[in-house]
Structures are given as C-alpha cells and as structure tokens.
Specification:
Layout: E1 2-7, E2 12-18, H1 23-31, E3 39-44, H2 45-59, E4 65-69, H3 78-90, E5 98-103, H4 105-117, E6 123-128, H5 133-136, E7 141-146, E8 149-156, E9 162-165, H6 174-191, H7 193-202, H8 211-231, H9 246-256, H10 263-282, H11 288-297, H12 310-318, E10 328-335, E11 338-344, H13 346-360
Parallel strand pairs: 2-9, 3-4, 3-5, 5-6
Antiparallel strand pairs: 1-2, 7-8, 10-11
Helix pairs in contact: 6-7, 6-8, 6-10, 9-10, 9-12, 10-11
GO biological process, one term: amino acid biosynthetic process
GO molecular function, one term: nucleotide binding
Main location: cytoplasm
Length: about 375
C-alpha cells in the first residue's frame, strides 16, 4: 500500500494505492462522519454487476444511495448528468452530503461534475476501478461530453480523497488495460526519460505486467500528474502538457463516436502523431518507428481509423480546450521530459496529417 498527497491551491488530499485499499474508505469517511448527512454512490452497470456488493461490504457502507449509470462514455451525456442531479434532489442530498464515484474515468468525470454543480458544489471521493482512471481520478478535472467536443462542459473540482484498490483491475478486459496504459506511457514521455526507458525495457506484453510493476507504474504516473497539478491547478500553463497526444486523440474519439474507439487507443495514435510533428518542427531526436512497433506489440492500433475525414479532424482540433481564437495549440516535445505548447497553423497541421496518414497507413 502506498499513500501519496496531492496539493493544489484549493485543496490537498490523500491518494491511497494498493491491493485492498477499499478497506480504508470506511475509516476515511468515519473521520468525517458527523459532517456527512448522506452518501450517494454513482457507478456504472458493468462495475455494479461485478463489484457493488463487495464494495459495500468492504467499505462498511450500509446506508447509501446508489445511482447506476450506463457504462463507458455513454455515462458522460447531458441526459445521464441530468438524471443524476434528479436522483440527488429526490433523495434530498444537501450541502453536507458526499458523492462517491465508483468506476472508471467516465464515471469519475460524471460523478465529479455532478458534485461540482449540485448546490454549487459538494464533496466527493474518487474510487477508481480502471488503469485509465489513475490519470483522470487525480487533479479535479470533471466533465461531460458534447457532440462537438470531448470534456468541453466541465469544472475544476478536487476530490476529498482517492481510494485506488488495484484488486479491481483484475477484472478489466484486455482492451481497457491497453486503454489505461496509454496514459502511463504519456506520463513517461512528458516527464522522465528514465521512466520511459524503463517501460520500454520491461514491458513487452500488457498481460505480463506484475502487480508490483503495476503499483510502481501507477504511483509514478500519479506523482507526475500531481506535480503538474500542484503548479497549475486550473490549466492556465504547464498543466496543458498533460494533454500530450490528446488533441488528435480527442478529435478521433469525437469523430468516430464516443465509445467506438477507447480513449487510450485514440491517445496512442495522438502521441505517435505528436512525436512525428515534434521531429518535423522541433528536431526531436526520437526513434519513431521503434515506438510505433512497440505500441503494435502491446496491441495498439497506431493509425487513424478508416472513414474519418481529415478536414473534420482539423475542425475538432481547432475546438480543443487549448485552442485560443481558433488557433490550434499543440503539446510537442523538444526532447523526452521537455514538453512545450506550440501554436501551429492549420496549413502545417493539415499537411502533416496527410503525411501521417500516408506513412502510418492502416493497421491490420
């Protein structure tokens, strides 16, 4: 079991990571028992079926309100968000109530946004159940999707704690493991060449990652994210570096249809694109072909999905949260561990997107 601390300008909170960590939830809540009038758990259909009964027993929570929402990105829609607010009102949650997010990144984003906006903000705790959520559960960015852009409707709302029980990862399907591990790779590229080299040397198959290695990778990733968030909670500067690979990645998700391509699959393609762009524009010294081959060995599709229109992808990238006045700002690397935020004109981006499609081709 490891404990980390996230410090921001608005809140500081613990992150507990390890097998069996869920047992710490009861103790954490009991410390504040007199301050919580009610507890509402928001989870999704898949997690509820697999873990809700054991979660309630392990967490020692008997009197809770449970709201079950659709799985995956379908949870992050306006109708589901509205339904959660209705459930909170019907069950008379007040400003001293607590929301617990129990699930992956989508549930965490949704539940956090419900907590951020219900009665202008109530407390919540993140209990992530996926690898992907090691990134999204920390830092306080909460949101729902819009057809015109991913995570465009949201808020900054820090949790009271993150309880990350790695035992929940044992039931993840292979595709979700792959999706989450893309964020681990991202953290290494933007922060630490030694960490990146360690991943390349140790990981040849996602099935072969040991529990010890997983604990190491996830706590390292959380620490890296925490360091960016501590310096820039509201993403006015360097926190944008955490979006490496996400500009094209989010565009792919939106154009393909949310849930058709996993977040990690889209980000893996986005990182490959951003690395190539970094070589073109900044002279990054990086073995791009070797990186692409490694991603493929891990099971990632590294090309843009067939049928996605180049001009529409560009338009989606222009709507990215980092863009200002329609000017695309892209996270690139001068070298591993040294990201920069760079304005790129549409003509340059379109030309390289065409080149990328031609060189990378389509995965089998």
């Amino acid at each position: 079991m490891q404990q980390l601390k996230i410090v921001t300008s608005t809140n500081s909170y613990p992150v507990f990571v390890g097998g069996g960590a869920i047992h710490l939830l009861y103790e954490f809540i009991q410390k504040e028992a007199d301050n919580y009038t009610s507890v509402m758990v928001i989870t999704d259909e898949t997690v509820a079926k697999l873990h809700l009964d054991s979660f309630q027993k392990s967490a020692g929570l008997s009197r809770i309100i449970v709201k079950i929402v659709p799985s995956g990105e379908q949870a992050k829609t306006f109708p589901v968000y509205y339904d959660c607010l209705s459930a909170a009102l019907e069950n008379k949650l007040d400003r001293k109530s607590l929301i617990i997010s129990f699930g992956g990144g989508a549930v965490g984003d949704l539940a956090g946004f419900v907590a951020a906006t219900y009665m202008r903000g109530i407390r919540f705790i993140q209990v992530p159940t996926t690898i992907l959520a090691h990134d999204s559960a920390v830092g306080g960015k909460v949101a729902v999707n819009h057809p015109l852009g991913k995570n465009m409707i949201g808020a900054f709302h820090q949790p009271e704690a993150v309880i990350y029980d790695l035992d929940y990862l044992k039931t993840l399907p292979e595709r979700e493991v792959r999706s989450g591990f893309a964020e681990v790779i991202k953290h290494s590229l933007i922060s630490d060449e030694t960490f990146y080299d360690r991943l390349r040397e140790q990981i040849y198959s996602l099935d072969a990652i040991t529990e010890t290695e997983m604990l190491d990778f996830l706590t390292t990733g959380i620490s890296i994210k925490g360091s960016f968030v501590a310096k820039d909670e509201k993403e006015k500067g360097i926190r944008a570096f955490l979006n490496f690979g996400h500009t094209l990645g989010h565009a792919i998700e939106a154009e393909a249809g949310y849930g058709k391509v996993t977040h990690g699959e889209a980000v893996a393609c986005g990182m490959l694109f951003a690395l190539g762009l970094s070589k073109e524009l900044l002279g990054l010294e990086f073995h791009l072909e070797g990186f692409q081959l490694w991603l493929k060995k891990l099971g990632y599709k590294t090309s843009i999905p067939e049928g996605l229109d180049r001009e529409r992808l560009i338009e989606k990238m222009k709507q990215d949260k980092k863009s200002v006045g329609g000017t695309i700002r892209y996270v690139l690397l001068e070298k591993i561990g040294k990201p920069v935020l760079m304005e790129i004109d549409e003509k340059t981006l379109t030309a390289y997107l065409k080149k990328f499609e031609e060189e990378v081709g389509h995965d089998d």
